[in-house]
Amino acid sequence: MPPRDDTPPAPDPLLEIRGLTVRYGGVVANDDVDLTVGRGEVVGLIGPNGAGKTSLVDAVTGFTPSDGEVRLDGRRLDRLPPHRRRRAGLARTWQAGELFADLTVADNVAVATQRRGWRGFVADILGRSARTGPDASLEMLGLGDDVGRLPDQLSLGRQRLVGVARALAGDSRVVLLDEPAAGLDTDESEAFGQIVRVMATHGHGVLLIDHDMNLVLSVCDRVYVLDFGRVIACGTPDEIRSDAAVVAAYLGEEPVS
Prior knowledge:
The protein is built from ten helices and ten strands. By secondary structure, the protein is α/β, with parallel strands linked by helices. α7 packs parallel to α8.
């Protein structure tokens, strides 16, 4: 059955994924996926386990070989390695999301923007690599009071926010959040959703991948649904709630009439 995609793409697309296909030997993890994320837009990506969600994130950010196109603000990135996509403004979080236990919150975030290679080495020698202060992403996410704390002094929810701040650090324009609410209780998940909306109001594009349907359907402007590596639906949260194909593949309940 062809995917139902009645909802128009983002009017001002920042991230454009076209025909993305990922193969692991004879297994097709993503099959000709099209997806867009606009400026200041939160887009959800849901699907059952094994649908290909993390494979898509890995491919878009350059950690898995793929076919198709990935464009950020019109610039084609799919031929670039992960670190150059990151420098271009495309960032991600990881499901594990471990922080450096012996570094403060501010230093955990600073790691993402440190220079590497000979330029970084020379900057260190010349004393030009010192930070002038905490990254602005910490204030944006409400972590300003935590900059001097160690990760184990924070709740799990705030640790997750530090991981998001690390992804936002520098000049990131689109952030792919891979299962950021895993392990959070209802209140923490709700608070996290509010922060995601804050990111959008600052002009960032956000692709949110999570199994917490309350979170996804409450904060996203549009939602894509993957099943067996293909997009089977795309629409507003209300449209996704009542889509028969989505209900059959994932939600497991009667569609809302």
